[in-house]
Amino acid sequence: MSVVVNILAAIGLIVIISYIVYYLYNYIQNLQTQQNISEINPPGSYMQNSGIQCPDYWVNTGIDNNGNYICENTFNIQTNNNAVCNANKMVFSNIPSGYTWDYGNPNGLKSLTDMDKYTFVEKKTATGVQGSISRCNWINSCGPSSTVQGIWSGVNEICNSPPPTS
After folding, report:
1. First vs last C-alpha separation in the chain
2. Distance (Å, rounded) from C-alpha 159 to C-alpha 122?
3. Contact 88, 145 (CB under 8 A)
4. Which site from 41, 69, 72, 134 is most exposed, i.e. has the minimal number of CB atoms within 10 Å?
5. CB neighbour list of residue 149: distance below 8 Å, 6 or more residues apart
6. Measured between alpha carbons, how far is residue 48 from residues 32, 137, 144, 147 in Å?
């Protein structure tokens, strides 16, 4: 009888140790993930709340009837005023309803995947002088001169990266 009790005690001890190791492993993985997310610049909360709206140094002056951001160059930053760029006003699409740029589903919203973000900034939704352009096209076409890109922190990094793999 004592052999059976010793075997069951050993099994119980192994199960308890396994749970402790599993918990510690998940805890450490979560800490590493949070550390990696905290090192992303600009942070997802900035991108969600203002960074995705308008290029750097442009001001979001409101939302149009379709929910798109109206961006104005109120500081008169010099830009290329070509066929697709308006030096004073552009309209950029909003993040789809129910989604967030942040990681970890804050406020119950679904986080955009890296591929969703890439597709979003490459999608031609901005309206300027003629037709529509993507945020990436704006960065590459509407900079201060033909050799300098427009600055748009957070968006620029995605546009200048290869498409993420699924």
Report:
1. 56
2. 7
3. no
4. 41
5. 139, 140, 143, 156
6. 23, 20, 26, 29
Question: Which tens digit of pLDDT belongs to each residue from 30-72?
Answer: 888 777 666 666 776 777 777 888 888 889 999 888 888 888 8
Token output for 53 = 């709206």
Q: Has residue 166 been placed in a domain?
A: no
Query: Are 97 and 136 part of one and the same domain?
Result: yes
Burial of residue 136 (CB within 10 Å: 0-12, 13-18, 19+) is: buried
| Residue 164 counted as domain residue | no
Q: Quote the number of domains for the chain.
A: 2
Are 64 and 14 part of one and the same domain? Answer: no
Q: How far apart are CA 94 and CA 53, in angstroms?
A: 7
